[in-house]
Write a structure and sequence with these properties.
The chain has 456 residues and is mainly alpha-helical. The protein contains 18 helices and 2 strands. Strands 1-2 form a two-stranded parallel ribbon. Helix 3 (58-71) packs parallel to helix 6, helix 4 (80-97) packs across helix 8 and helix 5 packs antiparallel against helix 6 (159-190). The longest helix is centred in the N-terminal third of the chain and has 32 residues, at 115-146.
């Protein structure tokens, strides 16, 4: 059977030509590469402008997220009354927090935002985070199809033109495949977050207290606490968080850098891609088909097994977010224990339940990055910060944020005494004493040289 001929002109079978004909690109007779190239160009023309660059059209992405937000319930425009209520809550939060926090309040005007406004203001941050994912997906998609040609014999001379056209088209499709996943994840998050940076990351363009009244009302339902107390409680939490992000310059960038680093290490599940995308999709990548494929790939894009490096990054990120949120918990509890003794404990418990069962950040990172981010140690971190407050006072506790190297580790959350035993405040006192002695000695020497003698 080795001498078996094809039925078309007794030519030797051409695996590449046969594969392309299966796609419907070569017709039933002679392979016509110019016609095939024309078909591919037509397919590319229906994709979003710039899609063949392997990047996401972020204008379209914003629009898609807004559509998801609109589908999840009424998203009314904030009015002057909403702004006044948030401003009043923040004004009181500033007065109450000042004695309990060593960081100054943000100077930006507090705002009440709709869900759509939160999307618009945070999309630049999401763009930085997911750009590496789209790049990895683009490479995996292009490589998975290119590998199908690697064993082809007697490749036509014009195939180089085909390869150059096919690869960028597939790379461009990657961004659109990811677009639905992105829009669904961010849209759902926008319908849940009660404040600008509730996720524990600084996704806002500046340090600013922001509440989302529509989501705040949903959070408050059934808690048995007045709307005013809920708003004030959340304003205190967000003001404390924004003081931290605003005054600790390394913190926000460090958190985002860890997320981006994880994203760069993502491995795409190529088998999920090839299972979802058949050969016919190569020349029929219309926006509708891409949307269908994206829905099929929900939750299947990423390899289920994470690398050792990714697990290390997740550990560091979980610890740092736990330290941020634990600090916010401690500061809020200390501040409101005096002013809201009845409502504050109820709201503390509501936040803990929300964190454990309906955490918007956890859902977002799972959908966008395949990251199982569960900062379980928040309560341990809050206990550690409380111990530091008792041991060193507010200024000594907050001085720990001065440099990343001073931050408690995961081991410190297991054994807070490790941190308390360091006693940096004593070391600072010794330095102050030594410096005072040096200054006193210099002053005595100056006087001995006649520095205080009156001029004639």
């Amino acid at each position: 059977m080795n001498d078996e001929k094809s039925t078309s002109g007794d030519r030797p079978e051409d695996p590449l030509a046969d594969w392309l004909r299966q796609l419907g690109l070569g017709g039933g007779g002679e392979l016509d590469l110019p016609a095939m190239l024309s078909q591919l160009q037509q397919a590319m023309s229906v994709m979003a402008p710039g899609a063949n660059s392997g990047e996401l059209d972020w204008t379209q992405a914003r629009h898609a997220v807004r559509q998801v937000v609109a589908s999840l319930g009424t998203d009314r425009t904030m009015d002057a009354q909403d702004q006044r209520l948030v401003a009043d809550a923040d004004r009181l939060a500033v007065l109450w927090l000042d004695p309990n926090v060593d960081f100054t309040a943000p100077v930006s005007t507090p705002q009440a935002w709709s869900r759509a406004e939160w999307v618009e203001q945070t999309m630049d941050s999401w763009q930085e985070i997911v750009a590496p994912v789209i790049s990895r997906l683009a490479n995996a998609l292009a490589d998975s199809f290119s590998s199908q040609f690697s064993g082809a014999q007697d490749m036509p001379a014009d195939f180089a033109h085909f390869a150059k056209l096919l690869t960028p088209m597939l790379r461009g499709a990657a961004g659109q495949l990811y677009a639905m996943q992105l829009s669904q994840a961010i849209g759902r998050t926008a319908s849940q977050v009660v404040s600008g940076s509730e996720l524990g990351l600084q996704v806002l363009p500046r340090a600013q207290v922001v509440l989302l009244p529509t989501n705040v009302a949903a959070f408050a339902a059934g808690l048995g606490v007045s709307a005013e107390d809920v708003r004030l409680y959340l304003a205190v939490r967000e003001n404390a968080r924004q003081r931290l992000f605003g005054q600790v310059g390394w913190l926000g960038p460090q958190l985002l850098a860890l997320v981006e680093h994880y994203a760069r290490e993502i491995t795409i599940d190529v088998s999920a891609l090839t299972d979802a995308i058949d050969a016919e999709d190569v020349h029929s990548m219309s926006p509708e088909r891409l949307s269908q494929l994206s829905e099929q790939l929900q939750g299947r894009l990423f390899m289920p097994i994470q690398t050792k490096e990714q697990l290390e990054i997740i550990g560091r990120l979980e610890t740092l977010i736990a330290l941020v949120e634990g600090w916010v918990d401690e500061v809020t509890s200390t501040t409101l224990g005096k002013w809201m003794p009845q409502a504050a404990p109820l709201l503390d418990e509501a936040i803990r339940r929300r964190r454990a069962t309906d955490n918007p950040g956890q859902q977002l990172f799972s959908a966008l990055l395949g990251m199982d981010l569960r900062p379980r140690r928040v309560r341990d971190a809050a206990n550690l910060w409380a111990a530091l407050t008792r041991d060193r006072g507010v200024s000594g506790r907050d001085a720990v944020w001065a440099h990343p190297d001073l931050m408690p580790t995961a081991d410190d959350l297991d054994d807070p005494l490790r941190v308390l035993d360091e006693q940096p405040s004593s070391a600072n006192d010794d330095l102050d004493i030594a410096l005072a002695e040096l200054l006193a000695q210099a002053e005595r020497e100056r006087r001995d040289l006649g520095g205080d003698q009156p001029k004639e």
